Amino acid sequence: MTKIVLLSGSPNIVSSSHKVLEVIEQLLQNKGFTTDIISVTQLPQQDLMTGNFGSKALQPFIQRIEQADGVIVASPVYKASYTGVLKSFFDLLPQQIFQRKTVLPIMTGGSIAHLLAIDYAFKPLITTLKGQALQGVYVVDEQMDKNAPHIIIDEAVWQRLRQQLEALDEAIALQKVY
Protein backbone atom coordinates (compact mmCIF):
# COMPACT_ATOMS: atom_id res chain seq x y z
CA MET A 1 0.00 0.00 0.00
CA THR A 2 1.26 3.47 -0.87
CA LYS A 3 2.11 5.70 2.08
CA ILE A 4 2.02 9.49 1.83
CA VAL A 5 3.36 11.80 4.51
CA LEU A 6 1.65 15.18 4.63
CA LEU A 7 3.85 17.79 6.27
CA SER A 8 2.21 20.94 7.59
CA GLY A 9 4.69 23.81 7.80
CA SER A 10 2.40 26.25 9.57
CA PRO A 11 3.21 27.21 13.15
CA ASN A 12 -0.56 27.46 13.67
CA ILE A 13 -2.44 24.14 13.66
CA VAL A 14 -5.68 25.84 12.55
CA SER A 15 -4.09 27.49 9.53
CA SER A 16 -5.47 27.40 5.99
CA SER A 17 -2.53 25.34 4.76
CA HIS A 18 -3.12 22.72 7.47
CA LYS A 19 -6.84 22.59 6.63
CA VAL A 20 -5.99 22.12 2.95
CA LEU A 21 -3.76 19.19 3.95
CA GLU A 22 -6.63 17.64 5.90
CA VAL A 23 -8.82 17.80 2.78
CA ILE A 24 -6.03 16.25 0.71
CA GLU A 25 -5.60 13.53 3.33
CA GLN A 26 -9.27 12.61 3.02
CA LEU A 27 -9.02 12.48 -0.78
CA LEU A 28 -5.98 10.20 -0.55
CA GLN A 29 -7.60 7.90 2.00
CA ASN A 30 -10.69 7.62 -0.20
CA LYS A 31 -8.38 6.36 -2.98
CA GLY A 32 -6.82 3.75 -0.70
CA PHE A 33 -3.59 5.51 0.27
CA THR A 34 -2.16 5.29 3.76
CA THR A 35 -1.56 8.80 5.11
CA ASP A 36 0.35 10.33 7.96
CA ILE A 37 0.18 14.03 8.86
CA ILE A 38 3.15 15.65 10.59
CA SER A 39 2.75 19.21 11.80
CA VAL A 40 5.73 21.36 12.71
CA THR A 41 3.74 22.19 15.85
CA GLN A 42 4.40 18.59 17.01
CA LEU A 43 8.16 18.93 16.71
CA PRO A 44 10.45 19.73 19.65
CA GLN A 45 10.76 23.50 19.30
CA GLN A 46 13.98 23.72 21.33
CA ASP A 47 15.70 21.31 18.94
CA LEU A 48 14.50 23.30 15.94
CA MET A 49 15.64 26.62 17.41
CA THR A 50 19.07 25.35 18.41
CA GLY A 51 19.73 23.29 15.28
CA ASN A 52 20.10 20.08 17.28
CA PHE A 53 21.17 17.61 14.58
CA GLY A 54 21.48 14.83 17.17
CA SER A 55 17.93 15.22 18.46
CA LYS A 56 16.49 11.88 19.52
CA ALA A 57 13.02 13.47 19.70
CA LEU A 58 13.11 14.23 15.94
CA GLN A 59 14.03 10.66 14.93
CA PRO A 60 10.46 9.27 14.85
CA PHE A 61 9.40 12.13 12.54
CA ILE A 62 12.40 11.60 10.29
CA GLN A 63 11.69 7.86 10.12
CA ARG A 64 8.07 8.51 9.12
CA ILE A 65 9.30 10.61 6.19
CA GLU A 66 11.95 8.04 5.23
CA GLN A 67 9.31 5.27 5.15
CA ALA A 68 6.94 7.25 2.92
CA ASP A 69 6.53 6.65 -0.79
CA GLY A 70 5.64 10.30 -1.40
CA VAL A 71 5.44 13.57 0.49
CA ILE A 72 3.09 16.53 0.36
CA VAL A 73 4.41 19.67 2.03
CA ALA A 74 2.13 22.62 2.73
CA SER A 75 3.05 26.04 4.07
CA PRO A 76 1.56 29.48 4.25
CA VAL A 77 3.58 32.15 2.49
CA TYR A 78 5.61 34.19 4.96
CA LYS A 79 7.76 36.97 3.45
CA ALA A 80 7.61 35.43 -0.05
CA SER A 81 8.68 31.97 1.16
CA TYR A 82 7.74 29.00 3.34
CA THR A 83 7.73 29.39 7.12
CA GLY A 84 10.90 29.65 9.16
CA VAL A 85 9.91 26.78 11.43
CA LEU A 86 9.51 24.52 8.38
CA LYS A 87 12.97 25.58 7.17
CA SER A 88 14.38 24.83 10.63
CA PHE A 89 12.97 21.31 10.39
CA PHE A 90 14.27 20.82 6.86
CA ASP A 91 17.71 21.97 8.03
CA LEU A 92 17.79 19.04 10.48
CA LEU A 93 16.68 16.38 8.00
CA PRO A 94 19.19 14.05 6.35
CA GLN A 95 20.55 15.58 3.14
CA GLN A 96 18.96 12.96 0.88
CA ILE A 97 15.70 12.35 2.75
CA PHE A 98 13.56 12.89 -0.35
CA GLN A 99 15.71 10.74 -2.65
CA ARG A 100 13.44 8.50 -4.77
CA LYS A 101 10.42 10.40 -3.47
CA THR A 102 8.02 12.64 -5.29
CA VAL A 103 7.12 15.77 -3.36
CA LEU A 104 4.02 17.89 -3.95
CA PRO A 105 4.40 21.47 -2.67
CA ILE A 106 1.27 23.33 -1.57
CA MET A 107 1.23 26.98 -0.52
CA THR A 108 -1.50 29.25 0.76
CA GLY A 109 -1.35 33.02 0.68
CA GLY A 110 -3.32 36.21 0.93
CA SER A 111 -2.86 37.19 -2.68
CA ILE A 112 -1.59 35.95 -6.04
CA ALA A 113 1.46 38.20 -5.58
CA HIS A 114 3.44 35.33 -4.03
CA LEU A 115 2.48 32.64 -6.53
CA LEU A 116 6.11 32.18 -7.58
CA ALA A 117 7.14 31.32 -4.01
CA ILE A 118 6.59 27.68 -4.95
CA ASP A 119 9.06 27.93 -7.87
CA TYR A 120 11.64 30.23 -6.31
CA ALA A 121 11.64 29.09 -2.69
CA PHE A 122 9.91 25.73 -2.17
CA LYS A 123 11.10 23.71 -5.16
CA PRO A 124 14.81 24.51 -4.71
CA LEU A 125 14.57 23.33 -1.10
CA ILE A 126 12.89 20.08 -2.16
CA THR A 127 15.54 19.57 -4.84
CA THR A 128 18.34 20.18 -2.34
CA LEU A 129 16.96 17.28 -0.31
CA LYS A 130 17.04 15.18 -3.53
CA GLY A 131 13.26 15.11 -4.05
CA GLN A 132 11.39 15.21 -7.33
CA ALA A 133 9.14 18.26 -7.01
CA LEU A 134 5.83 18.36 -8.80
CA GLN A 135 4.38 21.60 -10.15
CA GLY A 136 2.54 22.33 -6.92
CA VAL A 137 -0.65 24.17 -6.03
CA TYR A 138 -0.94 27.73 -4.74
CA VAL A 139 -4.23 28.71 -3.10
CA VAL A 140 -5.20 32.29 -2.24
CA ASP A 141 -7.53 33.28 0.56
CA GLU A 142 -10.39 34.19 -1.79
CA GLN A 143 -10.38 30.60 -3.09
CA MET A 144 -11.00 29.24 0.41
CA ASP A 145 -13.73 29.38 3.02
CA LYS A 146 -12.16 28.53 6.38
CA ASN A 147 -15.59 27.63 7.79
CA ALA A 148 -16.60 25.29 4.95
CA PRO A 149 -16.29 21.53 5.47
CA HIS A 150 -13.88 21.37 2.52
CA ILE A 151 -11.94 24.63 2.76
CA ILE A 152 -11.36 24.99 -1.01
CA ILE A 153 -14.32 26.65 -2.71
CA ASP A 154 -12.82 27.40 -6.13
CA GLU A 155 -13.40 24.73 -8.79
CA ALA A 156 -10.20 25.63 -10.69
CA VAL A 157 -8.17 24.97 -7.54
CA TRP A 158 -9.94 21.62 -7.06
CA GLN A 159 -9.05 20.71 -10.64
CA ARG A 160 -5.37 21.65 -10.20
CA LEU A 161 -5.25 19.76 -6.93
CA ARG A 162 -6.78 16.63 -8.48
CA GLN A 163 -4.31 16.83 -11.39
CA GLN A 164 -1.36 17.16 -9.03
CA LEU A 165 -2.56 14.24 -6.88
CA GLU A 166 -2.86 12.16 -10.06
CA ALA A 167 0.70 13.19 -11.03
CA LEU A 168 1.87 12.22 -7.53
CA ASP A 169 0.24 8.80 -7.85
CA GLU A 170 1.78 8.23 -11.30
CA ALA A 171 5.25 9.33 -10.20
CA ILE A 172 5.15 7.04 -7.16
CA ALA A 173 4.06 4.12 -9.34
CA LEU A 174 7.03 4.76 -11.65
CA GLN A 175 9.42 4.99 -8.71
CA LYS A 176 8.25 1.59 -7.49
CA VAL A 177 9.02 0.09 -10.90
CA TYR A 178 12.62 1.34 -10.82
Relevant terms:
6 helices; Rossmann fold; FMN; FMN reductase [NAD(P)H] activity; alpha/beta; 178 residues; 41% helix; single chain; six-stranded parallel sheet
In brief:
The protein is α/β, with parallel strands linked by helices and 178 residues long. The protein has helices at 16-30, 45-50, 59-66, 84-92, 117-128, 155-177, and strands at 3-8, 34-39, 70-76, 102-109, 132-133, 137-140. Strands 1, 2, 3, 4, 5 and 6 form a six-stranded parallel beta sheet that branches.
Could you walk me through the main structural features you see in this protein, from its secondary elements to its overall organization?
This protein is α/β, with parallel strands linked by helices and 178 residues long. It has a single domain (3-177), classed as Rossmann fold. Helices cover 41% and strands 19% of the residues. The chain is built from six helices and six strands. The chain has helices at 16-30, 45-50, 59-66, 84-92, 117-128, 155-177, and strands spanning 3-8, 34-39, 70-76, 102-109, 132-133, 137-140. Strands 1, 2, 3, 4, 5 and 6 form a six-stranded parallel β-sheet that branches. β1 (3-8), α1 and β2 form a beta-alpha-beta unit. The chain is globular and about 45 Å long. The protein starts with a strand and ends with a helix. The mean pLDDT is 93.
